[in-house]
Structure formats: C-alpha cells, structure tokens
Amino acid sequence: MNRLSDIGTIKDILSRHGFTFSKSLGQNFLINPSVCPRMAELSGAGEGVGVIEVGPGIGVLTNELCRLADKVVAVELDKRLLPVLEETLAEHDNVKVVNADILELDLHRLIADEFEGMRVTVCANLPYYITSPVIMKLLEERLPIEAVTVMVQKEAAQRICAPVGSRMSGAVTVSVNYYAEPELLFHVSAGSFMPAPKVDSAVIRLNIRPEPPVETDEQRFFRVVKAAFSQRRKVISNSLSSGLGMDKASVIAALEQAGVSPTARAEALSLEDFAAVAGKI
Predict the structure, then answer these.
(1) 270, 229 contact by CB (below 8 A)
(2) In total, how many domains does the chain have?
(3) Are 144 and 111 in contact (CB under 8 A)?
(4) What dihedral angle (degrees, nearest 10) is formed by the CA atoms of 178, 167, 280, 250?
(5) What integer pLDDT is reported at residue 128 of this predicted model?
(6) pLDDT for res 2
C-alpha cells in the first residue's frame, strides 16, 4: 500500500476500523513519505536479512521493510491495530504480525523460530516512554542481531550518541556504548507525525559489538555506572559513596587506585575508567 503516508488515507483506514489514538501507548504515526524508505534502507534490511520491527502502528515502515528484507516480524502491543495491519500489509507475503509486549517477549526463541539461516536486524519507531527499556533489552540479552535502528526523541538520540566522556554523556551513553557503537543517522521533525508530538525525533543506529570494548565484571561495572550518574552534579567520590552505600574514604582510595580523580564528575569518565573503578570498588 503506497499511500500510507497520506493523511487522508490514514484517517480513512483508521475510521473504518474504529481506531482512536492512545496517549498511554505513545502512538504517533509517520506521515512524512521520505522518512520510512530512508530508515528501512539504513537499517540493513536486504536480501538474506530478517527484521524485527517494534510497534508497527499502521504499517508505514513495515511496508518499506517488507520490500527490502527476506522476512519481517512486527511486534505490536495494541490488538486494535491487528485488523488495520491485516489490511495495510495484505500485499506482502513475507511479514508476520505478533501481538505481544516486546519487553516480555522471548526474542531468542522468536529469532530461532522465524529467522533460521538469516542475518537479523531490528528496526522501530519507538514510543518515547519505552525507549530506554526496549533498547537495553535488545542489547542486554545479547541477541544474534547485527544492529538496532530506531527512531527516538531527539534529546535521547543526542545523549545515546554522545561520546563517552563528554558533557552530554550519561548512564545510558555508557551502557549503550558497552554493547554497541551508536551513530546518529538523521533528524525527523515533529510535523512528520500524526498526531504531532511536542518534540522532534531522530533516527539512530546501534551497531552491535562482537565483544565489549573493556574487560570487567559486568554486574559491578553497571552498578558503578548507575551510581556515578545518580547524582551527576556531584563529584564522583560523593555520587559513588551515596549510590553504593560505601564510606567516602574507601571510595576515594578505590578511585585513586583506578587512576581516577575523586573530584572528577561521572560525565568525564571513559569506558576504561569505569571498568578500572569497578575493578577496585
């Protein structure tokens, strides 16, 4: 269906199916015809590739992915959209819609069942309210995927793609960079959606690392990262002492052993610094 970016077509389809937008599900459908083809192409979808899409909405991006990939599995939480997708995806025989919550889905099993012999990638226009949980699930579960290409709130994209150790970096920056190499692909204006959100968006691609860039005890590493950024305006000795429940003298000693200044702030630390601190705490 080639006219899914047309407002009139969208309104007609949704009206016939009695669909109304849900604010709680963060539903904003793309109406800019240039965004989805570009996003699908940059996602890595192609011959020999299977794609997991999260939150297909009415299927605008899904259609583009189906044209490029061998198979697309679209995971949609809102069961009201199932008959809509049945109509809008009718021309494609390489798509399967799964009515499920992506955060509760066994993605290892889904990949094994649906994409045997294929390279796998993820592509999604993510609702803002579940951006971080979805991204971290996709990364932490160490799925056999090559990349995650998602549209997120512009500010979230900038933070995720900020260099670790820069002023814009945060806990999510460090966490994402541990598993993947992020890149900001392009910006998308609020007017590209119906209904239009209050903020602009951006498309980012997370290229999955074959191995983490540092050797560390992962559980301890992420505890340190979370604690370090829990009070980002404070120096790291204070934030770690508070976040980890340790006396300040012990924290300062550990930081000095790791070669990190106790008066530094979390945003100034590199992945190697966090790994070094995790090894001494």
Answers:
(1) no
(2) 2
(3) yes
(4) -150
(5) 82
(6) 58
The Cα–Cα gap between 4 and 61 comes to 9
Q: What is the DSSP string of 123-183?
A: EEE--GGGHHHHHHHHHHTT-S-SEEEEEEEHHHHHHHHSPTTSTT--HHHHHHHHHEEEE
pLDDT of residue 25: 64
Q: Which residues contact 275 (CB under 8 A, 6 or more apart)?
A: 214, 215, 216, 221
What is the phi-psi region of residue 86: left when phi exceeds 0, alpha when psi lies from -120 to 50, beta otherwise? alpha
* CATH code, domain carrying 271: 1.10.8.100
Contacts with 11 (C-beta within 8 Å, 6 or more apart), sequence order: none
127 close to 69: Cβ distance less than 8 angstroms:
no
1 in a structural domain: no
Asked if residue 33 and residue 157 are part of one domain, the reply reads yes
37's tokens: 């083809």
Buried b vs exposed e over 182-198: b needs ≥16 C-beta within 10 Å? Answer: beebeebeeebbbeeee
Alpha helices, H only, the chain: 7-16, 35-42, 60-68, 82-88, 107-114, 131-140, 154-161, 171-179, 218-230, 236-244, 248-257, 271-278
- Local mean pLDDT, 10-residue blocks, the chain (281 residues): 70 78 69 92 98 94 97 95 94 97 97 98 91 96 98 95 96 97 97 87 98 96 97 93 96 98 97 98 90
> Residue 193 forms beta bridges with which residues?
30
Q: Is residue 213 part of a domain?
A: no
User: What is residue 267's predicted lDDT score, i.e. its pLDDT?
Assistant: 96
CB 184 within 8 A of CB 158: yes
